[in-house]
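We give its fold:
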Amino acid sequence: MKGERMIKGMHGLFYTPNAEEVREFIRDKLGFVYNDLGEGWLIFDMPEADLGIHPLDKVIHSISFYCDDIHKTVEDLRSRGVEFSSGITDEGWGLLTHFRMPGNMEVELYQPKYAKRSPREISRTKATTRARGKSRKRI
């Protein structure tokens, strides 16, 4: 198991009384690829994921989607009937807006200003870090 990544990804969940409508929205409006497990159970494949941990006085969680060109993405999603609940704002770390999903669920969409590394770059960095760590141990 040494050298293998223990955690291969992240599985996010939306809990809602409107599960079928939300699944249809993500499939039809956002266009995510999915696996149909039968009886309406769709599991969507995310092209990328990242995880941020932010300080707050209470425990909550949220899901945000990100894109490379927020203006183009908003235009495309609006053409598919997606309703946006806010304009695009510059938050310093990125450009941010919000859209509604069925059941009045509001979700963030942002264009990061920070560099996102590809999985290949991350693997190369980890290999270099492991190699450096091994050489330090020998000294």
Q: What stands out?
A: Strands lie at 34-36, 42-44, 64-66, 83-84, 89-90, 94-101, 105-112. Residues 19-48+63-138 form a domain with the 2,3-Dihydroxybiphenyl 1,2-Dioxygenase; domain 1 fold (CATH 3.10.180.10).
